[in-house]
Amino acid sequence: MLVTASGLTLVPGGIFVPPAAEAALAARLSDLIGQTVGYEIYGHDRYGHALAQIFPSRSGDRSLSAEIVAAGQGAVLPDAIETPCLPELLRIEGEARAASRGLWGSVLRIRQAAEPKLATHAGTLGLIEGRVLSVGNTTTNHYLNFGRNWALDFTVMIPVRDAGSWGAGAPVPEELAGRKVRVRGLLEEWNGALIRAWHPAQIERIDDRD
Fold first, then answer.
1. Confidence (pTM)
2. CB under 8 Å, gap of 24 or more: what pairs does 165-171 form?
3. Same fold, 2-98 and 110-209
4. Where are the domains of the chain?
5. pLDDT tens for each residue of 140-182
6. Hey, what CATH topology would domain 110-209 get?
7. Using alpha carbons only, what angle is made at residue 196 by residues 190 and 201, rounded to the nearest 5 degrees?
8. What's the CA gap between 97 and 105, in Å, rounded?
9. Which residue, 89, 157, 207, 210, has most beta carbons within 10 Å?
10. What is any Pfam family matched here (predicted)?
11. CA 57 to CA 37: how far, in whole Å?
């Protein structure tokens, strides 16, 4: 995080930085001490810190989040609220991933939904690919099921209240059965491995590329 002269605490938004890259992030933030930066605040985290796109003067129009993602020191993690420059961040991440830059291929990697023991990675960013076997619905949540054993297999939980506000062009949970998707989010251990999806950019249709 970065504290401005006015006492405002800024957090680079829209990204996940794994523990292995925290020292590199700290170094980047330290380099900004005493420097003039631009920033755009678009919300706050649960601690009251301002989620922002921070623009170091050395980088022109490129945000600090984009620098981190481009170096392979972090991956895109859309916030529950809209993240500015999200398509550009995803494009930059794709380039870093394809080039195996930074932590890609080691700490950061794409996993398959059928992999056993996905839940052992709880607390880390999950980039999970697989085919949705079925879709379950309750009054509060949609569930994308990637296996027949709901107590053990990978699942994506989508709050109904959030999916209802995703807008045109966003994935429709009920239409994802049988589709191959890539899901991103924090992995949890809950009846197997679980990702909660609040933002439409967390779910990407990839079967059209097959």
1. 0.89
2. 166/200, 167/200, 170/200, 171/200, 171/203, 171/205
3. yes
4. 2-98, 110-209
5. 999 999 999 878 899 999 999 999 998 888 999 999 999 999 9
6. OB fold (Dihydrolipoamide Acetyltransferase, E2P) (2.40.50)
7. 155
8. 8
9. 89
10. SNase
11. 6
